[in-house]
Structure formats: structure tokens, C-alpha cells
Amino acid sequence: MRVTRWGTGYGLFAVGAALVGLMVALAVAAPLIDRYDPAAQGVGPALAGPSVEHWLGTDRFGRDLAARVLHGGRTTLLATAAALALVVSVGTLVGAAVAAVGSIVDRLARRLFDLLVAFPVMVVALALVGLWGPSLATALAGVLIVLWAPFARLSRSLVRTALAEPSAVAARALGAGRWRLLRYEVWPRLRGPVLVLAAVEAAQLIGVVAGLSFLGLGAQPPSAEWGAMLQEGRAALWSAPHLVLAPGIAVLVTVLGLTCMAEGLRDMLDRAGQAVPE
Amino acid sequence: MAAATVLLLAGCGGEATAGQGGSGTLRVATSALAASVDPMAELSASYLRSVGAAEGLMRTRADGTVAPELAEKVEATSPTVWTATLRPGLTFWKGGTVDAAAVVASMERARTENTLAAGLLKDVTVAATGDRTVTFTTKQPSHSLPSALSHYQMVVHNVASYPDGASGTDAAVADLTGPYRITGFESDRRMVLERNERWWGGTPGVARVEVQKVGDPQARAQIALSGQAEIVQDLPTDRAKELAAAPGMSLVAKPAANTVTVYLNPASTAAPALADPRVRQALAWGVDRQEVVDLATNGLSVPAPSWLASNPAFPDATAQGYVRFDKATAERLLDEAGWTLGADGKRAKAGQKLALRLLTFGVEAATGEVLQAQWARLGIDVQVRNVESSLINQSIEKGDWDAVTQAWTTLGDTAKLIAAQIGPSGAANHGGYTDPRIDGLLAQAAGAPREDQRTAAVYDLNRLMVELAPSIPVHPRVLATGVSDKVTGFVAHPLQYENIVQPTMTLG
Questions:
Q1: pLDDT per residue over A203-238, tens digit each?
Q2: Per-residue model confidence (pLDDT) at position A277
Q3: For burial by CB atoms within 10 Å, which of A36, A70, A236, B65 has the most?
Q4: E strands within B115-227?
Q5: Taking 50 as the threshold, does the pLDDT of residue B466 lie above it?
Q6: CB atoms within 10 A of CB B337
Q7: Mind telling me how many Å the CA of A135 is from chain B's nearest CA?
């Protein structure tokens, strides 16, 4: 049977990238697209359905829902992207450093990574919110405390494996320096799996950010945030379903896109013969 | 005042008198339920009263006045003595006689076991002076004793049925006087009541009442819509439209006798502007209360221009205070206080932005969001956080707060309630506000010989609260109840604990 590019994960990745790209583009272009201040109350009648004037309708305070969904995307995606960039870089660097140092540091660090990975992100975030009060920054701080560990664990494992490969051993024997080893032996084996994990964790992060805001522990009023909007709309689920549908679809499309990207990447890397995280 | 003043007389049975008893089970869903069948246990008396299990000597009518309940009449027989005459033939559920001695025993146990009751009976000596006559002797002339006797914590219970160590969760222990007696009880979860055939007011309207606690307001709304309960209390106002349009039920909304108020901290280091009364007044004038009511309560409440406005016994209070939305006055006051508007639309003074943190609790989150938007239009940056009430109390205790929303009751012993708001060390005087006029007016409100003098002093105090602006009244909370079309005789009441199961209700 002939294996097409679609069958190797390219298709899934492309669909995911398109969905995520669309959401990112809408969020970035929000100030150009929307016609209302997302925090302005009374710009329309309360709880009005979609119309030419208000594309996605209005909420209980008469705020334009389209503006809030677009700006909510900025909040959610920006917070997720910033947190992800931090956990990926910190986790990967720490994991790689530990693998390079080896001995007792490696063993101790491994235990720490395992311990942190076992901690539910939501519980840590809730604990911090309990200590410092609800805000998106506090919730993200809780996420950061835990979420770098999976990247550290993965990169530690991959770096150790890469350094034990015959090509790396030979390169070292031929006098290759640390940077050369990193550049040609470690990095090619590291980037793919880390990217896959990042895509998986990004989807989870969006869920955590939206979830905490849904519980009233993340973004605070009048910030537009998808999770907070879902919570606000939940009360009027039957009489004004557009309040839940708009942010709900936004979360769904973004998480679906990221999941497709992660799965597609995994398939692509599997084909390429690289070890990828489950 | 030698001549006895007969303050209150009940008509035969009064408004509480039930008609002919009907059959059927009334199902009730509530947001909270009694923790114990002992009314002196914490968080119990008000809920026992609200489901028709407990009664006191007096009760509060829907118009805010007090009327006899177990008492036939209560009269001032001297400046320091009130005499209550019990209705004839009163009995507890288990058949014991409710005589003067039983009432005194109940009062004394309340004084010993419950701090709230102890406060209400402070400096009051209770004595039985006949089979049906109880006297209440106060150290100073007191005009508020009938009001104190109508408080939910003053319910009459059979002391012999509540010995030390008795289980508060055993329905068999309970022995009260209400139209419905408890036959099944799960603490803070479920209660079953059956008609009290010995009730003094006649035969209560329904045979059986099942009360279930449903904590989630959205779940309560679904129960009301699906007809799973005939009475559903404390419905979320953000579903008012849907509930009002639902077939087979009515949404009965009543502004409660408590005012959602934003308390301001003049000693805040984070918001020093609040020390200036002009800024506090500007915040108050800058509130469009009608818009708050429309957006935050779906139009189910009413604007409260002054703190006392939610008390139906003081109707003129709705004409006092911030009776209109006056953005121009608010802006002028802020300008006078030196907080001028910058090019960025924000007000600042000496390089410091005019900003404050507003903590809200529960249903007041929506009110907070509307206020945030309205004050933003004045150039004030408000950060709103909806938190647990315990966090609000902690912030106040630590002094680390700028503004908080609370809704203290306005109906009861008005002089004491106002003293709590602005009196020295008043429980709700969070900002420690003082004014030389307060003490004199409070004394006048509590102790002036004539009722019109006391009423005038209360209105003066209410006016003084507007002038000092220690807090910003916004609107009363809403008591939104779903009542099935099968139910007749439901009467909305501004007090939550008078508002659910009433003996006059029948099932069609």
C-alpha cells in the first residue's frame, strides 16, 4: 500500500496548524476587526442574539460578544504562549544540563522531575490562588511551577540517549567540542519530541487557563477571557446559548488544532524514526 | 408614661391564620438549610423559621412593622417594662403547654446558648408574672423590645426537649410551636415536615413539606423550570427572563430588606483618595443605580439612594441621598478634590492615578462589574475581585482593603442597625468613621419618648450617612422565588427567613 504524505501525519499537522493559525490570526487582528471596546457595557441591548450590529450577540451587560471573544483569544493565547515558552525553555535547558552533568545531580534531579510531574497542575495553581488571591498571573505562576518538569524529564532522557549514540561517541573521540555535539548530535534528536510535547502541553495549558478563569480564579473583570466568558454564559445556557457557544467553539477549535498538530508531528517523527513522547 | 401603651394587638389569629387544611406534599428547594433541629445551634433558627417550624412571640410583617405571633399582645406597661400576654391554649408539638414559665425558660436558654440572642436580651430581665404573662424589664427605657422579640433567634422552644448532649440532628428531639413539625432531618441537607394539628392558627394549608437543599443556583433554576419543586428559593437573577416566561410557575421577586453597599476605607494606603469625603461622595453620585439594577439584577431590584431605602418601614428613605445619577456633580467633586482628568481618560493627582480595589462576594459580582464600568467613565480605575466572604472579612481585619460590598439588614431595631453602620466601633463601621452628631442622634433614635421623634432621628442619621459617605448604597438584594401555579397563598417577604413555607399556602 502506498503511503501518502497525509498518511504520515502531514495532513493532520496541516489541519491543526490551519486551525491554530486561524485563531492566532483572529486574535492578533482583533483591534482591526472588532467595532466595540470589549469592556464597554451597554453598547447593545442585554443578552441580544447575533445580528448585523453585533455579530455574536451581546452579554448580560450589553457588551459586544464578538469583541470579547476576539480579545479573549488574545488573553488566552498570549498567556498560554508566554507560559509555554517559559516552561519549554526552562525545562529543556534544565533537563539537558542535568543529563550533561550526570552522577548524583542527575539522580536527584530525576527524582525531582518525577515528583513534579506527579503533581496536578490545577491543584498547584489553586493553591497559589488561595495564597495570593485570584488573578491570571497567579494562576500561570502555579502552572509554571509544575509544567517545566515534563520538558526537563524528556530532554534529560533524550540528551543522555543522544550522547550515548555511536555517532556522538565517535564525534567525541574525534575531538568534537561541547557545542558541536549539541549542535549536530543532540539538537536534531531533541527538537522533534520537545515540539510534540509542547503542542500537547499547549492544549492542556489552554484548558487550565480557561478552567481557572471559569472558576473565577484566573482573569478578572472586565478582562475578556474564554473560560470566564463560559462561566458568565453558563447561567443563560438555554435562553441565550450564544453566550456559551462563541467562547466554547473558540476553545474547542484551538485545542483541537493543537491536538491535531501534536498528533501529526508525532506521526511525522515516528516515520522519521525518532523517539517521541507518548 | 404612666398610662400603659398598648403597642400591638393582633386580630384573632392575625395574618398568619391558616384556612382549611389541604392535602398533598409541598416540595421546596432552598439554598441553605438548618444545621440542627435545636434553634439555639448556629445557623439553625432562621432556617427553622423559614420552613414554618419555629415561631417567636413577635414576627415581622411584610411591610416592615412587627406584629404579635405567639403573643396575643405586647404592651409597654412602664418606661422600662414590656408585658407580653400569650395566646390561650398554645402548645408545643409534643403537647406540652406553652405558658409563661416555658417562654421564660426558652429565653434564658437562648441567652445562655446563643451569642446573638444574648445580645438581643442584654440588660433585659425576663420573668413570668402569670400563666400567660411574661414581663421584660430593661435597665433603660427601650422602644425596640418588640423588634428584638421578632428576631429569628428569639424563637420559642421547649427547653426540656433539648437537654445537654441531645443530638441536634435527631428529628425526635425537636419540639417547637410552628405550623409544621419536623419528622425527618438531615443536617444542612434535607428536612421533612408534617402539619402541626395543634397549631394555634388553625389547620396549616398543606399536609406535608419536603425541603431539600440545592446549593448550586443554576441547579435550583433547573428544578424550578422542570417543576420538580413547588417552591424554589433564591433563584439566580441572571435567569430572570427565562424563569419569568416559564409555564406553570411564577417568578416572585422582592427586594430584600438589606442594601448592597460599597464600604470605603478612608485609611487605605493603596487608595488614599478615599480619605477625602468629596471623592467618596463623587463615587456615590457617579453610580447610575437604575443601570446597575437593570444590568446586575435584570431589573428585579430597585435603586437604593440611601442605606435605609431597603427598609419598608421607612418609605421616605427612598427620597433621601443619591436620588439621581449625577455625573456632573461627581466630576466637579473630583476636580475640586484635585483628581483631574488626564489625556488618557484617567484621573490623577500629583502623579498618582485614582484607583481602588473592590472586593465583591457572591451575587454582588455583577454589581461590582457594573460599578467598575461606571466609575471607569469618571476616569477611576477599579480592580474588581469576587472572593469568599471570609477573605473580605480578613482584608478588613488586616486593614488591607479599599472597598468591599456587603449587604447588612436594614429591618429590625433600626437605631441599633444604624449604630452598627456609623456608630463608634459599629460592626459595619469598617472605616472607623466618626462625627460629633452621631452619638446624639443615635441616642435620640433609640430613646426619644415619642415615636415621631425617634423616626425623625433615624431619618437624620440616614441623611448624615449620605453626607459622611462612609459607604455607597446601591440596591437591595433580590429575593427571587419560583412558585408553582399549584401553590396559592405565597406572600413575598423582605426577610429571607419569613419567605418560604407559610401556613396560609395551599396546593391546588
A1: 988 988 899 889 888 888 898 999 999 988 887 887
A2: 55
A3: A70
A4: 124-128, 133-138, 180-186, 190-195, 208-213
A5: yes
A6: 19
A7: 9
Please provide the DSSP assignment of A95-135 as one string.
HHHHHHH-HHHHHHHHHHHHHHHHS-HHHHHHHHHHHH-S-
d(CA B169, CA B154): 20
Name the strand (E) or helix (H) holding B50: helix B45-50
The residues in B 350-369 lying below 8 A from A, measured between CB atoms, are 365-366, 368-369
Distance in Å, alpha carbon of A84 to nearest chain B alpha carbon: 26
Give tens-digit pLDDT for B15-65: 455 556 667 899 999 999 999 999 999 889 999 999 999 999 999 999 989
Instruction: Calculate how close chain B gets to A34, using CA atoms only, in Å.
Output: 19
* Residue B348, strand partner residues: B340, B353
| CA distances to A76, A208, A231, A250 from A211, in Å | 11, 5, 9, 14
Judged by a CB distance cut-off of 8 A, whether residue A50 touches chain B is no
- Report whether pLDDT(B3) > 50: no
The three state secondary structure string of B419-438 is: HHHHCCCCCCCCCCCCCHHH
| Nearest residue of chain A to residue B217 (CA atoms) | A235
* End-to-end Cα separation, chain A, in angstroms: 26
What is the rounded CA–CA span in Å between residue B471 and residue B320? 15
Strand order in the sheet with B471-484: B180-186, B190-195, B208-213, B25-30, B231-232, B471-484, B249-264, B403-409, B355-360, B381-386
Integer distance in angstroms from the first to the last C-alpha of chain B?
51
Chain B contact for A40 (CB, 8 A cutoff): yes
Measured CA to CA, the distance from residue B164 to residue B260 in angstroms comes to 39
**A216 at interface of B, judged by CB pairs closer than 8 A:** yes
**What pLDDT, in 10s, does the model give residues A158-189?**
999 998 889 888 988 888 888 888 888 888 88
Tell me what ipTM this predicted complex has.
0.76
B94: exposed, middle or buried (C-beta count within 10 Å: 0-12, 13-18, 19+)? Answer: middle
Q: How many whole angstroms separate alpha carbon B279 and alpha carbon B272?
A: 10
**Domains in chain B: ranges and CATH:** 21-206+479-507 (3.40.190.10), 258-476 (3.10.105.10)
Q: HSE of B29 in the Cβ direction (CA atoms, 13 Å)?
A: 25
B377 close contact with A: CB closer than 8 A? no
Bridging pattern class, strands B25-30 and B231-232: parallel
Residue A66 · residue A56 · CB < 8 Å: yes
Do B295 and A42 lie within an 8 Å CB cutoff?
yes
Report yes or no: B372 at the A interface, CB cutoff 8 Å. yes
A49 touches chain B (CB under 8 A): no
Single out the residue of B75, B16, B22 nearest to residue B200, CA to CA: B16
Cβ distance of B373 and A46 shorter than 8 Å: no
